[in-house]
Amino acid sequence: MSTAQHTKDLIRKVRLIELKTRGLSDHIFSGEYHSAFKGRGMAFSEVREYVPGDEVRTIDWNVTARLGHPYIKVFDEERELTVMLVADVSGSGEFGTEHQLKRELITEACATIAFSAIQNNDKVGLILFSDQVELFIPPKKGRGHILRIVRELLEFRPTHKGTDVTGALKYLNSVIKKRSIAFLISDLLDEGYEDALKIANRRHDLVVLRTTDPRELELPDMGLVQFVDPETGEARWVNTASRGVREHYRVQALKHQARTRDALRRAGVDHAVIGTREGYVRPLMNLFRQRD
């Protein structure tokens, strides 16, 4: 394919992603995003007398005790937040047996979040990681900046294939000093990252979107099949016709799933599962609403 044709195809792909995800963010997610995150970036402004309908949790008890009747705290929204997309581009992202690859799922979820953020006048940045940080785009505003992020998500080819969640989160903490909303989008096919989750969640408002595919949980009967690990390149033959083999695979997958859930729960991190079959729209909306 010529360079001109490649560029033309890339522009078309970027435009399709923009049309799909910007439509979602305009009509669905910008309001949900605002409720979930903007309400947390509040600066104290003044107090005023309580009126019926005000939220009890906003009562200023010190002023109320001093003046003898209830007063509430009034807050102004801090107008600008920083959103960091920390996206996994390891080898397992090229896996997908349903409607799309995990990498394509990550691209669309990131684009939707990014367009929702700029609708709310926030800055957006990007970290792409494998077993090392592959790319960092500092946070900025504007449609042109978001389209650059989408272009990288579509086009970027990592130099490594492994996954290092701890390294990615340490890098986030080192380059983004101000508290941000950080979305970690990954299948979390890694170990030993729980402490890194806790530290990142203290410094930032960390949200995890874990990508999955149905075949990571259930192995179909396909006879004797060669499987290749996309991250290590290791190949092995597996007799999928064996019920025992399929059951062992399912049990190990469920154990990994449980360990991952426990690590996220212990770290106190809000998270959702997005899948190549189910997509990301409903899980993301549910997550945003839970935080409202």
Biggest beta-sheet profile: 6 strands, mixed
Strand order of the largest sheet: 5-4-3-6-7-10
> Which segments are poorly predicted (pLDDT under 50) over 5 or more consecutive residues?
none
- SSE string, helix = H, strand = E? HEHEEHEEHHEHEEEHEH
What's the level 1 CATH class of the largest domain? Alpha Beta
What is the distance, rounded to the nearest whole angstrom, between the alpha carbons of the first and last residues?
48 Å
Average pLDDT over all residues: 85
Corresponding CATH superfamily of the largest domain: von Willebrand factor, type A domain
CATH-assigned fold name of the largest domain: Rossmann fold
- Our Rg estimate from Cα atoms comes to 22 Å
* Overall SS class: alpha/beta
CATH architecture of the largest domain: 3-Layer(aba) Sandwich
Principal-axis shape:
globular
Please report the total strand number as a whole number: 10
Question: Outline of this structure?
Answer:
The chain is an alpha/beta fold and 292 residues long. The chain is built from eight helices and ten strands.
Task: Explain what you see.
With about 290 residues, the protein is an alpha/beta fold. The protein has 2 domains: about 5-35 and about 80-290, von Willebrand factor, type A domain (Rossmann fold), CATH 3.40.50; about 40-75, no CATH class. The protein is built from 8 helices and 10 strands. Strands 5-4-3-6-7-10 form a 6-stranded mixed beta sheet, with helices on both faces. Strands 1-2 form a two-stranded antiparallel ribbon. Helix 6 links the parallel strand 6 and strand 7 (about 205-210). The chain is globular and about 80 Å long.
